[in-house]
Amino acid sequence: MFDYLRDPQEIYRRSFAAIRTEADLSPLPETLQPLAVRLIHACGLPEIAENIAWDGDPVAAGVTALKSGAPVLADVEMVRRGIIRSRLPADNEVVCTLHGDGVADSARAQATTRSAAALDQWRDRQQGAVVAIGNAPTALFRLLELLAAGAPKPALILGFPVGFIGAAESKEALIQHAGDIPFVTLRGRFGGSAIAAAAVNALAIVGEET
Asked: At residue 210, does pLDDT exceed 90?
């Protein structure tokens, strides 16, 4: 009834070729471009390339962390479930504490969101971890507050909260206050769980090739 491409490998090949043609990746370091391509592929918007911000060598940091067995810490279940576990190099733990014991009570006591309160349960896993935030600006703000107070440092922060209130501001705060922790983020309101999960998956795929 419909004439459409069915070959998955050819769909991927053409998709990535289109991204390379339509997106201006030239301002990005070569090591970051495979991750950028995956972010664009996740949302279908080549124009987001111009809003990617980073510091350090985030791809190398993330690949090294994953190969060493570091956990992935996700702010929401959608991020956790979007990560392709079979591609992770060391059977890495993928953790979301949003529904952990006491999180709702802690959020009420602190007059904050559950996403922010859930980060208090990351402490014993946070050192050297890959952090993937794809939903809540309050989670990214809280992470930066904890780090400023001396919390263990993750190996990499993938900061892609989305929304109209606090998303752009939280990502600018990451840019200004990440210190020596490598990060990747996307300036502005755009982001989301699919973007954050795609970033983790990109690191796993790059790691397979190196």
From this structure: no
User: What are the residues whose beta carbons fall under 8 Å from the beta carbon of 135, sequence distance 6 or more?
Assistant: 75, 76, 78, 79, 115, 161, 162, 192, 193, 196
In the chain, where the domains are located: 50-209
- Residues facing residue 95 across a β-bridge: 73
**Strand-pair partners of 96:** none
Under DSSP, the state recorded for 99 is: T
CA gap 132, 159 in Å, rounded = 6
C-alpha–C-alpha distance, residues 137 and 89, integer Å: 29
Give the architecture-level CATH label for domain 50-209.
3-Layer(aba) Sandwich (3.40)
* Residues noted as catalytic: 41
**Strand 156-159 versus strand 94-95 pairing type:** unpaired
pTM higher than 0.70 for the full model? yes
Residue 26 DSSP label: T
Task: Say what the pLDDT of residue 194 is.
Answer: 96
Q: Cβ–Cβ contacts within 10 Å for residue 177, how many?
A: 13
Percentage with pLDDT > 70 across the chain: 100
Q: Are 30 and 22 in contact (CB under 8 A)?
A: no
Amino acid 1: pLDDT: 87
**Strand pairing report for 156-159 and 130-133:** parallel
Q: Is the pLDDT of residue 74 over 80?
A: yes
Which residue has tokens 């992770």?
Answer: 88
